[in-house]
Design a protein that fits this description.
With 402 residues, the protein is an alpha+beta fold. The chain folds into 3 domains: 115 residues, Orthogonal Bundle (Butyryl-Coa Dehydrogenase, subunit A, domain 1); 110 residues, Beta Barrel (Butyryl-CoA Dehydrogenase, subunit A, domain 2), CATH 2.40.110.10; 151 residues, Up-down Bundle (Butyryl-CoA Dehydrogenase, subunit A, domain 3), CATH 1.20.140.10. It contains 13 helices and 9 strands. The strands form 2 sheets. Strands 2, 3, 6, 7 and 8 form a 5-stranded antiparallel beta sheet that branches. It has a 4-stranded mixed beta sheet with strand order 1-4-5-9, covered by helices on one side. A hairpin with a 2-residue loop joins strand 2 and strand 3. The radius of gyration is 22 Å and the shape is globular. It starts with 6 loop residues before the first helix and ends in an 8-residue tail after the last helix. The model has no long low-confidence stretch (mean pLDDT 96). The structure holds flavin-adenine dinucleotide. The site of flavin-adenine dinucleotide has 19 residues, from strand 1, strand 3 and helix 13.
Amino acid sequence: MDFEVPEKMKIILEMIDEFVEKELLPLEPEFLNKSFKSMLPVLQEKRDMVKKMELWAPNHPKEYGGMGLDLVEHALVSESLGRTPIGHYVFGCHAPDAGNIEILHLHGTKEQKETYLRPLIEGKIRSCFSMTEVEMPGSNPVMMDTTAVKDGDDYVINGQKWYSTAADGATFSIVMAVTNPEASPYLQASMIIVPTDTPGFNLVRNISVMGHAGDDYFSHGEVLFQSCRVPQKNLLGPEGHGFVIAQERLGPGRIHHCMRWIGICNRVFDLMCSRAVSRIISPDRKTLATKQIIQSWIAESAAEIQAARLMTLNAAWKIEKLGAKSARFDISFIKFFVAGVMQKVIDRALQVHGGLGMTDDTIISFLYRHERAARIYDGADEVHKMAVARRILREYEGKIVR
Ligand SMILES: Cc1cc2nc3c(=O)[nH]c(=O)nc-3n(C[C@H](O)[C@H](O)[C@H](O)COP(=O)(O)OP(=O)(O)OC[C@H]3O[C@@H](n4cnc5c(N)ncnc54)[C@H](O)[C@@H]3O)c2cc1C
């Protein structure tokens, strides 16, 4: 892989870095202390600026008004935007819309694309993705209780989902439900588009996560489907292919997340170093930076971030060149490795800030709390480690090693 950043990307990244620094970081105190909904007008202003700069929807298709960047290019963008929790939202490449856009683009009918995909890419509406269930293990989603039963021209959906990120204020959800219970486990479920104003789509609550229920885009909904009736033309992709399509969505999605996490690492690393050189800890005016233990954290963090970054770019490059299937294990590596690095680096940055790190006067405490979930969603650490280890160990079966 060639690590040289093309000239076109250097310019784009410089513009994004400057925008994040000047326009978005100053909004963070408000973001930390107010509801997301109350920030929508100012965020819309920033979105309009991004559109004028022609940096809107960097990873989405050009034909729909995006920039059409490839996966490696967008990985670099995601790193820059990851410096702030509002970066991806303001540039129109935020989860879960980004994943839903990919699915709709690849599998949507002409009508679905006009009704849902176009306004989604334009940032006029939002969406959510409802797969995980309260009573069933999300780590093994073939165990699914939600059903969609055909009745006349409709599907009638019943079930209880949770962790539908950003359901609050979403226009539609892509719902995974069992449509073919008699088929083999991986061919039982389908994806169905459900407008959130359909009778029977009930947003029960925004789940309180680590003391914060959040609101609007920054929330995770519990959704109860009670005889929720949608036309069969809302089926997305072939019936029974829900898991096949979900699998496609996860490869690029994990690259986006991992590079966003690298952006977070870079941000807290900067804060940690800046605090270390400025915090005086003795009367002879020595700073934290003079202490070996802090130096060790800084050196370890720098090396780990570098390793995580190169692994992720390599996985992105492999997906681009060989397809997501060939990069399956590289994707599993980065999913648990980068999440772990991020957790360690945020923790060290918080520790270096002492009491200040625990307050909401810096972004660190928000990131410490909010990003813990990285080791759980899109496949918990343990699931990825098992998949990788099984494949490695298979190569040693019956082999004599000297
Ligand atoms: C912040 C956040 C956002 C999310 N957003 C969405 C969303 O938008 N849409 C959606 O549908 N879902 C979403 N999820 C749900 C997420 O995908 C699930 O939480 C995840 O798949 C794990 O499922 P579970 O919570 O049911 O845990 P379980 O499957 O019950 O697993 C619990 C734990 O058991 C361990 N474990 C599981 N399987 C194994 C195994 N085979 N071997 C060893 N250990 C194992 C792991 O440590 C795991 O963390 C989100 C979750 C979070 C936290």
